[in-house]
């Protein structure tokens, strides 16, 4: 059997739902369908999830948000009208939403989270109603009834291990299951969401629990591209890549598939296929445990901005016991996560996501590092972009780094830092944000436009 997940743009209008129904009904193995909330209908549109977040915030401030409630409900009503569905499902969505909005507001982030989660919950009910209207034996399944339990951190839920056993029981059910993505329940019965775009995670959890043969992830592009198409036009499509490669690419800006979503599928060895709802005959991209590396050492170039780096230097740092631990303890005390730590004998650079740090936190950390660790120099650099060259075959290939650095130097890109993980799946270059695009172009040209060795 296959678990099939559809993203928000695949479910934004009645016409899109018709495509979804065709795709699901064309293959009897597609028995579990995971849905997102309605996404953008065009570039200027707003996702229902974002409308819901605003609505919850307004409710917290003013105790009402009539216009937002109407615009949310009308998004579903427009779809139902387009498909000729009765009003029953819209009445249900309206009353569910109003009931949630009147819910307990004592913990605002949990309150907002429950409203935010409802976008997929409502849509799963609507999609199930439409599938039944088309004569299919389809029904909505609530994550609560199915036992999808998660931790209690709003917007960053992690699946609880017992969920897999609970969800495996869905295997016995007949017909097509329509399951809302993006959230589960904690043990107190609160709806808690995964991080944004987390419906991919739900699909992967279900694929693992049901030991699916394939997890199909339908979105709005024909494939995963080897580079961001908004930076390089008409880039090469990737046919096949490994979990590790996909993880590295989605970490550094490839938003086509959520980076956390790979883990459950990976653990159960289930291939993940990225496909296009608007062009289902296109081959798509398959993520597999292992692949033949016949197409060169590099599979993709990714980049992401919004990083900063803390540079610490101290003479004889390499001989000082516990230096690294004490630096990291200072970060931990401020609940900061780090991304990379390239280091030398007398210095270390810690790369972090900028949005975790405001000026106060930054000053506090700098002072502590200087005072408590007696560092010779501590500096912070902002506006760093990370550019990743990804490909598992580079470990058996001589000269990949040389080619990359030559391409960057020919393009006059100044490399601020370079890091190659011990797994040799990727090489990371830190560059100034202003040079990010230049760097990506140069690397793409070097590995994809010129003849491969
Ligand atoms: N609707 C949610 C979001 O916009 C989750 C998802 O689409 O996967 O983040």
From TrEMBL:
Keywords in alphabetical order: Amino-acid biosynthesis, ATP-binding, Diaminopimelate biosynthesis, Kinase, Lysine biosynthesis, Nucleotide-binding, Transferase
CDD domains noted in UniProt: AAK_AKiii-YclM-BS, ACT_AKiii-YclM-BS_1, ACT_AKiii-YclM-BS_2
Domain ACT: 389-453
Enzyme Commission number(s) of this protein: 2.7.2.4
Keyword Kinase: yes
Pathway annotation from the record: Amino-acid biosynthesis; L-lysine biosynthesis via DAP pathway; (S)-tetrahydrodipicolinate from L-aspartate: step 1/4; Amino-acid biosynthesis; L-methionine biosynthesis via de novo pathway; L-homoserine from L-aspartate: step 1/3; Amino-acid biosynthesis; L-threonine biosynthesis; L-threonine from L-aspartate: step 1/5
Record carries keyword Disulfide bond: no
Pfam families xref list: AA_kinase (PF00696), ACT_9 (PF22468)
Catalysis performed (reactions): L-aspartate + ATP = 4-phospho-L-aspartate + ADP
GO molecular function, one term: aspartate kinase activity
Superkingdom field: Bacteria
Family: Belongs to the aspartokinase family.
Role this protein plays: Catalyzes the phosphorylation of the beta-carboxyl group of aspartic acid with ATP to yield 4-phospho-L-aspartate, which is involved in the branched biosynthetic pathway leading to the biosynthesis of amino acids threonine, isoleucine and methionine.
Full protein name: Aspartokinase
Organism of this sequence: Bacillus changyiensis
């Amino acid at each position: 059997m296959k678990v099939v997940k559809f993203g928000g743009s695949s479910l934004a209008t009645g016409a899109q739902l018709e495509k979804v129904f065709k795709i699901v009904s064309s293959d009897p193995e597609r028995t579990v369908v995971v849905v997102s909330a309605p996404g953008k209908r065009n570039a200027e549109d707003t996702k229902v999830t974002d409308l819901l977040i605003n609505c919850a915030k307004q409710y917290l401030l003013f105790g009402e948000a009539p216009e937002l409630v109407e615009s949310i409900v009308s998004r579903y009503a427009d779809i139902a009208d387009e498909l000729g569905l009765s009003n029953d499902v819209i009445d249900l969505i309206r009353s569910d939403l109003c009931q949630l909005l009147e819910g307990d507001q004592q913990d605002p982030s949990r309150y907002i989270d429950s409203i935010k989660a409802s976008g997929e919950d409502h849509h799963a009910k609507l999609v199930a109603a439409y599938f039944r209207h088309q004569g299919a034996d389809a029904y909505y399944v609530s994550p609560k009834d199915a036992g999808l339990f998660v931790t209690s951190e709003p917007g960053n839920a992690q699946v609880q291990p017992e969920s897999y056993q609970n969800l495996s029981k869905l295997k016995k059910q007949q017909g097509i299951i329509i399951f809302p993505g993006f959230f589960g329940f904690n043990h107190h019965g609160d709806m808690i969401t995964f991080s944004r775009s987390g419906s991919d995670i739900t699909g992967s959890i279900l694929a693992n629990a049901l030991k699916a043969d394939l997890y199909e992830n339908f979105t709005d592009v024909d494939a995963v591209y080897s580079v961001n198409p908004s930076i390089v036009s008409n880039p090469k499509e990737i046919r096949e890549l490994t979990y590790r490669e996909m993880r590295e690419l989605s970490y550094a800006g490839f938003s086509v598939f959520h980076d956390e979503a790979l883990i459950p599928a990976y653990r159960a060895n289930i291939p993940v296929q990225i496909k296009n709802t608007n062009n289902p005959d296109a081959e798509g991209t398959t993520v597999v445990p292992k692949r033949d590396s016949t197409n060169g050492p590099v599979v993709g170039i990714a980049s992401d901005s919004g990083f900063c780096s803390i540079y610490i230097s101290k003479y004889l740092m390499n001989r000082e016991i516990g230096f690294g631990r004490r630096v990291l303890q200072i970060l931990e005390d401020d609940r900061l996560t780090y991304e990379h730590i390239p280091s030398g004998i007398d210095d270390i650079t810690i790369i972090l996501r900028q949005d975790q740090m405001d000026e106060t936190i930054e000053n506090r950390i700098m002072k502590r590092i200087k005072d408590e660790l007696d560092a010779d120099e501590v500096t912070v650099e902002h506006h760093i972009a990370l550019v990743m060259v990804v490909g598992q075959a580079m470990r058996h290939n001589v000269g990949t780094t040389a080619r990359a650095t030559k391409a960057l130097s020919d393009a006059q890109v100044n490399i601020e830092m370079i890091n190659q993980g011990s797994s040799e799946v990727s090489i990371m270059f830190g560059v100034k944000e202003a040079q990010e695009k230049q760097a990506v172009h140069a690397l793409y040209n070097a590995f994809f436009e010129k003849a491969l060795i």
